[in-house]
């Protein structure tokens, strides 16, 4: 019994320390100085996506940082939140079916609260 408890505890510990940290970094030169993850400070970016004409919240809008392949989606109320963002300036790309693609340039992400509002126009 003690052997099983030890084995389960050891496996949980190994699983926890082996988790990869997913961090989004600012746009720019990929040959910039690297920073150790243990000293890296991250923040979050949240917001809402609305229809230009009606002001209605849009669910399922794809949002990503320019230069990144990771895509985030708005919830049923048009809200989104992206965690583990390294402070910096970003271009935010958004697209949605039957709406024009949108690019919000040079969004400054810094400090604990970063909230943006994206307004999409129909094609």
UniProtKB/TrEMBL annotation:
Protease as a keyword of this entry, yes or no, is yes
- According to the record, the signal peptide region is 1-20
> Which GO molecular-function terms appear in the entry?
carboxypeptidase activity
Q: Which residues form a coiled coil?
A: none
**Keyword terms:** Carboxypeptidase, Hydrolase, Protease, Signal
- Pfam families per the UniProt record, alphabetical: CarbopepD_reg_2
Q: Know the name of this protein?
A: Carboxypeptidase-like protein
